[in-house]
Amino acid sequence: MKRRFSPLAALPLLAAALLGGGALLQRTCAPSAVSPAAAATAADAPSEAKVAPSARAKASERRVYAVTLARHVTIGGETFVETHLEGRISFLPIPGTNLCEARLVDPLLDVSGGETPRVADLRRPILLAYDAEGRLEGVRFDTRTDEASRLLLTSLVSATQYTRGKGPTWSADEVDGSGTYRADYERKGERTIERHKRGYLRMHEGLTPLVAEGDLRILVDGKDAVESATAHEVSRTSRKTALGDVAGELRVSLRLVDRAEATRAELSAARALAGAYEEPNMVPPKRERSASRREMDERRAAGHDLDELRAAFAETDGQPRDEVGQRRATLIHTAGALFRVRPEDALEAGKRLAASGVTDAEANFLAGGLAAAGTEEAAHALADALTSPEASIEARRQSAVSLAMMPVADADTAFALSKGAASDDPALRNLSTMALGAAGRTLAASGDVGEGLDPVADLLARYASATDDAERDMLLAALGNSGDPRAFEVIRGALASPRLAPTAAYALRFIAMPAVDTLLHILATTSPNPEVRQATYRAVFFRDATVWLPWLESALAKEKDDQVLEAIRAAIAHMASP
């Protein structure tokens, strides 16, 4: 059994990326006492040298703002994460350094879905680090701060950057928790400045590409210091997840409520943080994620058991749709954490899913929790439920959906999906077939394809004997999930059919053959059907950037169809990321 990174397990991080915001209150915290040359020297020096006070350091002012943050993430149109934060945040520039201390005071936090930050971690001060140009380069955290708190604090401080400039308009490349974007500024009178953000130039490594738009409205005083700021940003992934489109909305507002000259004790305490804090980062260090995940699982699962979670899920029936979505997402992910911490509970959930008498809602909960767990035990529990003669048809459908998202595949899961793909139920047959294609790709990547375990060979045989286009279309999509070179000729032949061509074009995306790029280029430049061109560019999204990126930029100026243009832009944004 081979482990793979679970798409569902990645969704909390994906949701956090959607809410990365813009960068930070540079005008409030920018190290104005440091020259660009001095800042550049400090950036290469050890932490102790970075925080050494300048002989001419000016007195520093602590500015306190009332702050509110609201973020909302949906997956497939259903609420996944809902967060509301209120409190105060103070900013204290540290004279003679490139650092600014930020401290959240009296936070009131309400979180539904996703991981809940620890309030104690939210209250710990953080250090905002700037580059030689005065722009944010990262956030420095206490090593004890949990990942959920890091993500929320980064979103908070990164939503309202103000990079000053001269004249009525100017631009700057800024960085936030998702990547690098171009910020376009415009003065609206003497005291009001607006910033416009339209997408990312580069994404941080490992993050799913986003399409983002946001606006920031800033009110400054006579010395160009921020008095208030209001930010609104909407984001969505430019590639679909197994659960559907992921979209996010972030709103942050700041309003100055207090200001005072910092005391020597406050400045000394702020400087002392730098010696113990981590280096600047805009995303949590990868080395910490495994341990952090285990800790979060244990904390989330504490005090819960399977029966209590099942009962709580059942109680959501009849509640308003938006409330049901939030509550059920929370319960499913709590179950996933429980199953990772206690594998025996995952096996018990599988037995209940495979038994008769399970309601549709409970089948959704049990299968969703097992998918969220992403473990070998969970995969085998789903396979058992899919093949159980006592399981309801809905339980088997939910099991097939969840297996499609699992990071593991072996003979047991492939056999279960093959049985589901032979079902008399059209929905189960379709869902299992799609999952078989994905399983074939996982097995090939791990080198586990062999005699008696070759889902792609079975899919190709089914395609050869298919008698209608609806069946062929489903099988083409499944073959596209596999990325197997053996499917190339079948897919190329399907391009001649107007009914099958869009599915066939997209099905080319994972096949690692030079002939695929040639064929995609022909489709993009010669097909009169915008649906085919759109599917082609959606496939190009997954191809080699060195081959496609220069050509895509020229294609952008020639294409006229709006949906095709959107697919081209998504591919360019993805390929331009690190």
Automatic annotation (TrEMBL):
Domain Vitellogenin intervals: 60-573
Domain of life the protein comes from: Bacteria
Keyword Signal carried by entry: yes
Basic and acidic residues compositional bias, start-end: 285-301
Cytoplasm is among the record's keywords: no
Signal peptide: 1-25
GO terms for MF: lipid transporter activity
One Pfam family cited in the UniProt record for this chain: Vitellogenin_N
Name listed for the protein in its UniProt record: Vitellogenin domain-containing protein
Organism, as annotated: Polyangium jinanense
